[in-house]
Every structure is written in C-alpha cells, then in structure tokens.
C-alpha cells in the first residue's frame, strides 16, 4: 500500500494531491527567495519551504490585497502557525505538504500550469495570484486539492486570529455566565 | 466480576504513564465518545473491570475558551484537518475525552423508522425495530436531558430556516437538544464552557468512572491482538500531548472482551491495521457521511450566526424523494474560521465575502447516502498507519446536491434574503427564482464546491449475513467472538437524521447484551 514514486499521495487535508514528482524537482528551492526570517523556530518546514508558504499565504489572505489596513499573513504569522500544526500530524501528511510546496514553487511546472516561469517566491504579485488561480480552477483534481490544502490552512490560521475579528464584524466570544463550581 | 461495590475509577492522562505499561481488565474499550462511554457505563455497572482507552486529551469546561484557533486542533481528529483523500469533503469528527459528544451541536433524533425498515428489508437487520430501541432511547434521553424542542432556542440563523420553510409549506420542526441550563452562547462545536451540553464526559463516562472504570487519555490504539478467534488485548501508543507523537507504549489485556468505539473511520481502520476479522471484505466499506452542502444568504439585518444554539430547526420535507437521493435541511453556525474555510476564492475576493460575516445565514443540506445505489466511501490504512478515506461523489448524490441548492435558495429568498450565494469556487449569485436554473449548469466536481461532513457512519456494518456485514445485530464481530463494535460504524447506511443519539441507543442495546452474554456461561444472541 506504500505509494509509488509516480503516484500522487492523497491523504487528508494537509497532505493531499501532492505529486511525488516533487522528487524530480530537486532544484526547485535553489532559487527560492527567502524573504523575512520565520518569527518562531520552525518545527517541520525548511527555511525554503517556509518562504514558499509565507508567500502563498500573503496572497491568499486579504492583507496582501487592495485594503492595506487589514492584518497581513505575516503579522498573523500564518506560516509559522501552519508549521507548528504540521509538526503534530502524521509524518506522511507533513511530508506530503512539503512536497506540495516544492511543486508549487517550481518555475518549471509553473510554465505549464500557469504560463509563469519564475519561482513563485520571485514572481510579481499579479503572477502569484495567476498561479493560485490556475491551481484553483484547474481541470486536474490534484491541483485543485493542492490549492485547497494551502487555502484552507491559510484562512484557518488567519481568520481564527483575534486581530482579524474586528475587520469582519465579529465581536468575539460572549461573557460566560458564572456557574457554581 | 467483583461482588461488592468497587471504588471509583479515574482518568489517567498519558503523561502519567511510564514509557511501557501493561494493564489487565475484563473489558478494554477503545474510544470515549457516545458508543464507548455507554458501553463503559453499562459494563462497569454490571460489575466488570473496565478500561477506556482514548486517543485524545482530557479537557473540561475550564479549557473551553470559545476560540476556534484552540478548539479545532485540540478537540478534533487530525487537529481539525481530517478530510477525504481528495480533500473534497472536510470531516469534522471529535477526538478527546468525550469524542464527538464534546463538540457536537446537541441535536438529538431517534433513528427514523423508515431507515430501520430499510435495514430490515435490505441489510439483514431484522431484529431491531422501534420497539427494540424504545427503552434504550428513553434511558439515554433521560441521562442526556433531551427535552422537547424549545422555541426559545431558535436564534436568528435558525429563524430564517423556520420562516422560509414555513412559508413554502415544508414543515419545519424544532430540534430536541441534549442540554441542561443552556445559556445559548453558540459555541457547542468548541466545547461547552458551562457543561450545559450533556456530553458523554459529563454523563455516561462519569457514571462509568463512578462504577470503577479507568480512562486512559492520549493513548492511540494501534492494534487489536487476537488469537484463535478471540481478542486478547489492545496495544496503544502513548502520545506526548505537546507534539502528538508517540512517547511510549501500553497494552491492555482483556479477560472478557474488547469493545471498539473509535468512530466510523478509526474503528474500521483499526481492524484493517490489525488484520483482525477482515475476511468478509466488508470492513471499511460502505462508509457514509451525510455529505453536507452549505448555502449562504445575505440579509439586510444582522443574523450573527455565531451566537445562539447552533441547531434548533430541521426540515425533513425532502428526506424521501422516491428513487432519488433524499436530504434534510438544518443550519450551521458561522464562526470566522469555519465560515472563511467554506467561502470560495482568496485575497480580496474572499475578503469581500468575509467582511459581511454578521449578515450571513447558513442553511445546510445533508444528503442521505447509502439508501439507493450509492455505495459510500472506503477506509484504508497505509503501511505507516496513515488513515485514508476515498469517497467518490456518486452521480445520484450530485443530483441531490444540485436539487438541494435550488430548494435552499428558494427557502432563503422566501425568508427575505437580499442575495443567496452558492459555495462553488465560482459562486452563483441568486436574487430570484430565475437565477436558480444556473445552478444545474455549474460543474459539481471535487473541490469545486464546499462540502463537509459531521456525521460518519458505516464501515463495520451490522447484519445477519457474515459475507456482507462485519458484526451481528447486537454488535458482536462475526469472526471474533469476544469483539464488539458499539459506534456509528455499525450502521448499514446513513441515518437520515443526526446520528449521535442513535449511537448512544444502539450502544446501550449492544452493551446490555454484552453484559448478559459474558455473565452467563452459555452465550446466545440476540434477545430484546
């Protein structure tokens, strides 16, 4: 039942739809733009993987868009929180997500998937959005699954952060009535 | 079994266990949710020495802070990230002391009579009917404080469902809830900070502990050991709560038997991993999810679907669609994270939806899978122990989903919605009946529309035919004589109603039989 190197691993939210083809992209991270250093010690991801995830989160959440007053993915530390979560799941799921980041970063694959030859971390914001959009609307289930894995984790960590609550009209949890111990 | 009253048991956290430990009891019970807790209570009350082994941690009302960022990683399977293999269906399933009962939305239904008839006619469950279950439902309803539906429980989110369905003649009904002194905060899915929700932790598990049962937490059962057709022990990894990675190992030897109640995904996975009693090929097959289709509507007035009882109204008008797959309608709470994950798109397009959160009403359609020619999903386990679930969305389910979206839109418009938005990745905006026709033209493909499941059923179906089912109609495994299953995996199909109360009642029926069968020298079943 061990997946072959030529098949997709499709197990669970975090690890889905990730081609082991990533193994054929050994140099995908060689040109990765690291950007800002992680805000906390990484528990699973490499520096390069964290950089790809940070760049994706920056485009997935609103703070990187038209309204500059929203918190950014970096201020919420979406990538750091996702790394901490990944460290607690089944090791295969964590490794699948790492492969997903390798595939997503690849300029080589980006050429075919989104006509975007640059590594994701080095692409212009509009091109980054185009790659996310290409994965989101792909006719291939595996790419749509990969997009959803990143999208859901980014949105889960972002919108569950109290600093975002006021922007979406959510007052937060109510006071809990006192009850006898 | 002892003659006198035993001292009370206790909850033993995994952190208190040594790297290696061995225990010996009459019954090892895997899982502390509805099925495991009732079995533990019944067997402990009968005098048996019981150990409950729970994968999740032990949390109480003081831990439940109503923050999604804490609750989903702490209280749900795979830290809130469980899904079908292709991610098309997100799966909400509890993992903690109390299991799904800690995080459910309190909705309490008896098993629909039509479903029991279907099981009798097509699945060999000929000796369970309404009369069989009635005393067990009565007992668990009393312990869980399930009262009649209460109109004061209807928040604005549910009011729209009530009003829309009422105007269309679809017979909305109040939902009975398992609560006592509920303050209607709206955070049932994150654990009740008042213990007003009657979870298994506060009821049957407490009863079991009072009768001497021991509950081991943070222990993930990896194996059921069998020998010549008998279950001998369960073997578990002791988890480090900080990392959720194994830090030790424990074994619980079971003198009388093993009861599996880890839920409809973990229980079949455990049997598959153990290569225990899987000869029929039915283990892990026919897994059903009530695949759930949400539809959101925007109103001019705030709905604040994050406050108030999450579910208090249901509509079963479309449950029986003849030859087509039926569905029933309820609501979902809309907290920031849950809503944001469901909303389509990213970046600013997503923001424009999210910032209307207080004005969102969410109606959900739960598809009743397994009643027609759809075969549900299949659970699998890799060599490294990772659990998978393949669930292809059968054409008959897609038809039902599209029909449901249309009818939910009609309902929301009837209730006064300004605009309805489908959760396709390319959303369809519906402002009038004319717009609804566009729904049928939109592709309904994996990850092209938000779907989730909070109800997992099947995978160890009960029945009289060992070639087509896994356990008897009293939960006893067909091949392993002292192994029982008391969770929702025994259901041959989806229920057509929220399943938790049915899990409690069936577990009580089965556990009563286990106590009787293991107390007497001769074992015969079934009996009412």
- pLDDT below 50 for ≥5 consecutive residues: which ranges of chain B? 522-528
Strand content of chain A: under 5%
The count of DSSP E runs of length 2 or more, i.e. the number of strands of chain A, is: 2
Oligomer: heterodimer
Describe this structure in words.
The complex is a heterodimer of chains A (about 180) and B (about 525). In chain A, helix 2 (about 45-60) crosses helix 4 (about 80-85) and helix 4 packs across helix 8 (about 140-160). Chain A has nine helices and two strands; from the N terminus they run E-H-E-H-H-H-H-H-H-H-H. Chain A has about 180 residues and is an all-alpha fold. Chain A has one domain. Chain A has a two-stranded antiparallel ribbon with strand order 1-2. The model of chain A is unreliable at about 1-20 (pLDDT under 50). Chain A starts with 7 loop residues before the first strand and ends in a 16-residue tail after the last helix. With about 525 residues, chain B is α/β, with parallel strands linked by helices. Chain B folds into two domains: about 10-65 and about 75-145 and about 190-285 and about 455-520, FAD/NAD(P)-binding domain; about 150-180 and about 290-370 and about 395-450, Cholesterol Oxidase, domain 2 (2-Layer Sandwich), CATH 3.30.410. Chain B has helices spanning about 35-45, 70-75, 100-105, 115-120, 130-145, 155-170, 205-210, 265-275, 335-340, 345-355, 395-415, 435-440, 500-520; strands spanning about 10, 20-30, 50-55, 90, 105-110, 170-175, 175, 215, 220-225, 230-240, 245-260, 285-290, 290-300, 315, 325-330, 360-365, 380, 385-390, 420, 430, 450-455, 455-460, 485. In chain B, the strands form seven sheets. In chain B, strands 1, 2, 3, 8, 9, 10, 11 and 23 form an eight-stranded mixed sheet that branches. A five-stranded antiparallel sheet of chain B has the order 15-16-13-19-20. In chain B, helix 1 (about 35-45) packs parallel to helix 7, helix 1 (about 35-45) packs parallel to helix 13 and helix 6 packs across helix 11. The radius of gyration of chain B is 22 Å and the shape is globular. Mean pLDDT of chain B is about 95; it is low at about 520-528. At the A-B interface, helix 1, helix 5, helix 7, helix 8 and helix 9 of A face helix 2, helix 9 and helix 10 of B.
């Amino acid at each position: 039942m061990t997946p072959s190197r030529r098949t997709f691993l499709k197990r669970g939210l975090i690890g889905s739809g990730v081609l082991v083809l990533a193994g054929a992209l050994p140099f995908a991270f060689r040109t990765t733009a690291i950007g800002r250093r992680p805000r906390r010690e990484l528990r699973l991801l490499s520096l390069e993987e964290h950089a790809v995830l940070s760049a994706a989160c920056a485009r997935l959440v609103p703070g990187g868009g038209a309204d500059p007053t929203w918190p950014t993915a970096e201020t919420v530390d979406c990538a750091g929180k996702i790394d901490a979560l990944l460290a607690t799941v089944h090791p295969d799921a964590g490794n699948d997500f790492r492969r997903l980041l390798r595939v997503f970063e690849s300029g080589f694959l980006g050429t075919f998937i989104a006509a975007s030859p640059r590594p994701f971390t080095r692409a212009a914001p509009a091109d980054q959005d185009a790659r996310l959009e290409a994965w989101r609307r792909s006719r291939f289930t595996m790419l749509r699954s990969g997009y959803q894995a990143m999208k859901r984790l980014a949105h889960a960590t972002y919108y569950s952060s109290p600093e975002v609550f006021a922007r979406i009209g959510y007052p937060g949890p109510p006071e809990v009535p006192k009850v006898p111990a | 079994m002892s003659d006198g009253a035993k001292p009370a048991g206790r909850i033993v956290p995994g952190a208190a266990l040594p790297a290696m430990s061995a225990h010996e009891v009459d019954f090892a019970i895997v899982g502390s949710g509805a099925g495991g807790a009732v079995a533990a209570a019944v067997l402990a009350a009968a005098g048996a020495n019981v150990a409950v082994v729970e994968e999740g941690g032990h949390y109480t009302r003081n831990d439940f802070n109503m923050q999604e960022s804490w609750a989903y990683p702490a209280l749900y399977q795979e830290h809130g990230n469980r899904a079908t293999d292709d991610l098309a269906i997100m799966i909400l399933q509890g993992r903690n002391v109390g299991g799904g009962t800690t995080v459910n939305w309190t909705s309490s239904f008896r098993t629909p009579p039509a479903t029991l008839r279907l099981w009798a006619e097509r699945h060999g469950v000929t000796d369970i009917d309404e009369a069989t279950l009635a005393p067990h439902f009565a007992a668990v309803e009393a312990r869980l404080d399930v009262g009649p539906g209460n109109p004061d429980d209807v928040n604005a989110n549910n009011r729209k469902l009530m009003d829309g369905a009422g105007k269309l003649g679809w017979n909305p009904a109040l939902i009975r809830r398992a609560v006592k002194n509920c303050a209607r905060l709206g955070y049932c899915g994150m654990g009740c900070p008042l213990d007003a929700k009657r979870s298994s932790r506060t009821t049957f598990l407490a009863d079991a502990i009072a009768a001497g049962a021991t509950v081991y937490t943070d222990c993930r059962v990896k194996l059921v050991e069998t020998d010549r057709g008998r279950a001998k022990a369960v073997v578990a990894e002791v988890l480090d709560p900080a990392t959720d990675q194994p830090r030790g190992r424990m074994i619980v030897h079971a003198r009388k038997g093993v009861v599996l109640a880890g839920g409809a995904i973990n229980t079949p996975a455990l049997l598959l991993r153990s290569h225990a009693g899987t000869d029929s090929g039915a283990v892990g097959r026919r897994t059903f999810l009530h695949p759930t289709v949400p539809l959101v509507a925007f109103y001019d007035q705030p709905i604040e679907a994050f406050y108030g009882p999450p579910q208090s109204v249901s509509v079963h008008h479309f449950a029986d669609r003849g030859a087509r797959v039926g569905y029933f309608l309820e609501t979902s709470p809309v907290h920031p994270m849950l809503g944001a994950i469901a909303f389509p798109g990213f970046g600013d397009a997503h923001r424009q939806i999210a910032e209307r959160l207080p004005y969102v009403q969410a109606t959900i359609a739960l598809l009743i899978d397994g009643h027609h020619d759809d075969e549900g999903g299949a659970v699998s386990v890799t060599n490294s122990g990772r659990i998978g679930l393949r669930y292809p969305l059968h054409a008959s389910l897609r038809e039902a989903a599209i029909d449901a979206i249309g009818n939910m839109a009609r309902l929301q418009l009837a209730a006064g919605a300004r605009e309805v938005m489908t959760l396709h990745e390319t959303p369809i905006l519906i402002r009038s009946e004319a717009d609804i026709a566009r729904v049928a033209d939109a592709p309904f493909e994996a990850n092209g529309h938000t779907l989730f499941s909070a109800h997992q059923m099947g995978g160890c179906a009960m029945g009289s035919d060992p070639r087509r089912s896994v356990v008897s109609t009293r939960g006893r495994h067909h091949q392993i004589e002292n192994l029982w299953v008391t969770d929702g995996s025994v259901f041959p199909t989806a229920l057509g109603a929220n399943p938790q109360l049915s899990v409690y009642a069936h577990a009580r029926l089965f556990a009563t039989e286990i106590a009787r069968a293991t107390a007497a020298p001769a074992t015969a079943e079934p009996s009412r």
